[in-house]
Please model this.
Amino acid sequence: MRESGVIPVINDLPGEIYFRHDQLAAMEWQTHSHSWGQLNYVSFGVMNLEINGIRFLSPPQYAIWIPPNVEHFSYTLQEAIYRSVYIGLETSARLPLAPCTMSVSPVLRAIFDDFALRDIRSPETEQDIRMAQVALDQILKVETHDNYLPYASSEELNRLLRRLQDNPGDKRSVRELAATLHTTSRSLERRCQRELGMSFGEWRLRLKFTYALECLDAGHTVQSIALDLGYSTTSAFIVMFRRFTGTSPDQYRTTRRMSQVNKM
Model:
């Protein structure tokens, strides 16, 4: 059962940028909005958000940009290490007008982690103010994406994607899955590019990756996750995981545990 998250009451931002950081259990935050922009990011775990009726996923390396006064609902299924940045209206006007997914650079992540370690929320010293400005510069130039794991525009394709979400380890080939829609694998790929903005294979890999993160956070073994995801060998699963994180599943889990110890 998810806990109900507390939404901080802040009438006015103390500056153009304000940092939040927390270690979250499985939680949910009811639909709300802010009079400032917000960058939601989890360095470990996965955050699910619904913004204007559209679902967004925020795994590590990706953050979700929410423009000012846009209603959103969010939740985490497992524990997550949370980072959030509130951005004033003046700077928000230089960022996308619509919600989107943003890549998180190593520099930006390092600043998030440093501020979280020292519990810096509203920078006051000259050094921290400079670091906050670097964070803003990184956010302003970051690469944006429409979504990390998008929905399709057609209900027929969405039904197929939902079936895969219910069973990420489905071993059927693209050809076999295309046949369930009475089409060819080539037509399915073209349809995914048109409706999802990515190939069917890329969407499927991203689904497996987010599922793997949740399983690792829940304490499942690497071997059991690989089997659940339909991989014939653990090494094949590790190759997929490294592609998204640059690290192995065991290294990811060790780093997460160290982060948890450092917060105690």
User: Anything to note?
Assistant: Residues 155-263 form a domain with the Arc Repressor Mutant, subunit A fold (CATH 1.10.10.60). The chain has two domains: 3-145, 155-263. The chain has a mean pLDDT of 87.
